[in-house]
């Protein structure tokens, strides 16, 4: 008989069809998340779990699933929602979708950087409110991206793809990471600096680390104080990498100029959240990898990870160990 798997959401059709070729599927066929209680019930006895970043895969869930579970496959590159160590202890393989979303995510990171620097959402809002009365010399004047100094925190695949794009804007690229990465940084013309230098010298800082214990609230009040007053922060990684309360204060008090966020804490961000009231904060609803082609590829990779896992084969894309 076919292995039993749960898919926790409506996913691109191609991904579902591929899983159904091999597995008996129970799917939460909705665009809204599966309730936790339902998920805990559904996972009982399954062989494989195909999840999203909205599901917390922890000891409680693994206990509920039981000893048949061989693989957790997430439709995301990030896996901070999965207790990977707990999965390893139980010999459960964990797969993610790296690589395919790198370029799409970097496109959005640069779009967000440009939109924030040049105040594009604010300008669109102004037109809609009837405030475009005449051409004014300093109206909606923003910051130049070309020729600026950009700091990349986390020079992984996505950080590097952002650096490559910004070279086209003639930017000076600095980076900080857990260790220097000359093997990939040199060809990008990216220079390794310590965090304090990055904070002091950059006009833009863009965040691309993984979320883990050492990056939780990495950008806090102290970091904002050390940034230029004209600096702009861009986050397309995970919301909790930034201490949002400290960011709000820094934006209100003029310690930094603006922020562009594709990720927040929590998600979704409540519509009455104070950050959404600020003209110098551009917030997007976690859409960096959201192109039709890329989300479809991600759904297929997650399907292949799931299938390999339930068949006891090595996953094509196992999550990497922390380095
Ligand atoms: C999206 O944030 C992802 O991790 O793929
Ligand atoms: C994402 O997984 C990255 O390595 O940037």
CATH T-level fold name of the largest domain? Rossmann fold
Count of helical stretches: 12
Strand content: 5-15%
List cofactors, ions and other ligands: glyoxylic acid
Low-confidence stretches: none
Written account of the structure:
This protein has 323 residues and is α/β, with parallel strands linked by helices. The chain starts with a strand and ends in a 13-residue tail after the last helix. The chain has two domains: 114 residues, NAD(P)-binding Rossmann-like Domain (Rossmann fold, 3-Layer(aba) Sandwich); 182 residues, 3-Layer(aba) Sandwich (Rossmann fold), CATH 3.40.50.720. The longest helix has 19 residues. Strands 8-7-6-9-10-11-12 form a seven-stranded parallel beta sheet, sandwiched between helices. A five-stranded parallel beta sheet has the order 2-1-3-4-5.
Question: Which key phrases capture this entry?
Answer:
5-stranded parallel β-sheet, 323 residues, Rossmann fold, 7-stranded parallel β-sheet, 12 helices, binds glyoxylic acid, alpha/beta
Summarize the topology.
Blueprint: E1 4-7, H1 13-22, E2 24-27, H2 36-42, E3 48-51, H3 59-65, E4 71-74, H4 84-89, E5 93-95, H5 102-117, H6 120-128, E6 149-153, H7 157-167, E7 172-176, H8 182-185, E8 190-192, H9 195-201, E9 204-207, H10 221-226, E10 232-235, H11 244-252, E11 258-261, E12 281-283, H12 292-310
Bound molecules: glyoxylic acid (2 copies).
One glyoxylic acid is lined by residues 77, 98, 156-159, 208.
Task: Give a brief description.
This protein has 323 residues and is of the alpha/beta class.
